[in-house]
Amino acid sequence: MTRETLTSPVALSATHVSKSFGSGPDRVDVIEDLHLSIRSGDVTCLVGPSGVGKTTLLRLLAGLASPTSGQVSMDGVPITGAVEQIAVVFQDYRGSLMPWMKVLQNVAFPLEGRGVSKSERTSRAAEALAVVGLSDKISSYPWQLSGGMQQRVAIARALAYESPILLMDEPFGSLDAQTRFELEDLVLQLRRDFGITIVVVTHDIDEAVYLGDRVVVVGGRPSRIVDDIDVPLGRERDQITTRAEPAFIQLRSHVLNEIQL
Fold it and tell me: Fewest CB within 10 angstroms: 61, 103, 178, 204, which?
């Protein structure tokens, strides 16, 4: 599996973006005049209190929702709907997999809508499953796999799209700690091996600091960017030694204080 690493300094950007639901006295302003740039090749983690609009922001970046005002762009080109260059992995991986299809079919099926030939669909699906360590599960059904394996299938499906940008909405929130650690390291491996630009929404501050080249704190009602922090931990990370570093502990406390304000 090969990809070209993006060279543009900014992969995604939100400029003066606001998002409201409803109208009149029932109108709810979720996001107001928000500015955000996602650097190409980075893992950017979005954190903030529950209900602050992190998932709404991710959907705007993915082109799955339209801003009430402002503009979302990819490499300077306005996004007006879903685009092939952006793949999305949702938290509800069980609901996104078709239980009557085997693993290989689940990964290959969405490519049919893009006009990819059957042989190439199968090849790309098998290759993506190999990347996430599931080559031996291609003939299994999703219900025969653990939760962590099902989420790997969902990630493989995004990889098979060969999109340079991957957006993830609390992808590991329902998994046990050990499985979370394994999948966090898989995310870092994908960025390292393929140069993918990754945005992760998470409520777990430790996860955000461990994964992120940047941690973006979202807060307020309507929400805005409270802080945008570069993570000084280098790109090679380890679940034990990285989490024990003074810089990790200090940054974790800093982000926690900002969320609790």
Answer: 178
Report the C-alpha gap between 57 and 33 in whole angstroms.
12
CA–CA distance, 22 with 178 (Å, rounded to integer): 41
Last residue of a domain, one of 135, 162, 189: 162
How far apart are alpha carbons 95 and 107 in whole angstroms? 14
**In terms of domains, do 21 and 66 share one?**
yes
Pairing of strands 224-230, 214-219: antiparallel
Please report, as a single letter, which amino acid is at residue 145: L
Residue 145, number of CB atoms within 10 A of its CB: 17
Q: pTM higher than 0.85, yes or no? A: yes
Co-location of 71 and 111 in the same domain: no
Q: Is residue 136 part of a domain?
A: yes
The tally of domains found in the chain comes to 2
Closest to 256 (Cα-Cα) out of 226, 234, 230: 226
Question: What local confidence, expressed as pLDDT, does residue 219 receive?
Answer: 92
Does any domain span residue 5?
no
User: What is the pLDDT, as a whole number, of residue 116?
Assistant: 85
> What is residue 94's predicted lDDT score, i.e. its pLDDT?
67
